[in-house]
Amino acid sequence: MEACYISQKTKRKSLSRSSAKDFIGLLGHELKGQLAGIVQALDSIHAHKLPDATFSKEAAIYFDYIKMITLNATAVYENMISSSVAGDGSLKISEEEMLVEPFIQSCIDSFSILSNLQNVRIERDVFVRPGTKGTIDFVKLRQIFSNLLLNAFKYAQPESYIIARAHVYGEKIILKVVSRGETIPKAKLQTIFEPYQTLEKGKSGVGLGLYLCEQYTDLLGGNIEVRSKRRVTVFSVILSFSSIKFDNHDK
Question: The pTM is what?
């Protein structure tokens, strides 16, 4: 969560009451989803409690889920701290090299339990050559993909589907999240990436998730767009070849 970067980019560099409000709002948004996931997992564990106060084997998966969410929340927190100490508001991108396909799968895996709980199936469409490595800020890339998937689950209808898509084409890597639910009105599509915009009161947070997606995508030199028609909504993120590079055998 790049609270310092976003606040200082859009407002005066001196800390004002407004920028402090943005900082708290962004921090709350990023951590709220992680904490809500932990609470949901704990509730599920409690449901598997046996009369003798032990837990059934089905509860084991939720312990792994809590561990995963906690690690993700820690990464978000550390990312926020590193951003908040940026002296001039220029965010430092922390690049690392990683295998792309397992990383994408891990992002989708983190929503498997939510998929079961909400009775919304998640389908994978991952087309990345085995062994492909990318160099990018994977913390920010994960937050982009995760925010889009979380947003899709918020508005998906029960017994519907969400498609998580990741393709690499030449000098582009494309992430897409397709979901079936209510069609987003055209007026909302014009402001959907602005801060504090929500589609429906009571279903979402403070309206910063998509704003963060747009900010991170722009920071990584990419583009994000949304289309919504006939109850199907598609969010697309395109990152250029400068954000992803391959080993020699993949070129």
Answer: 0.69
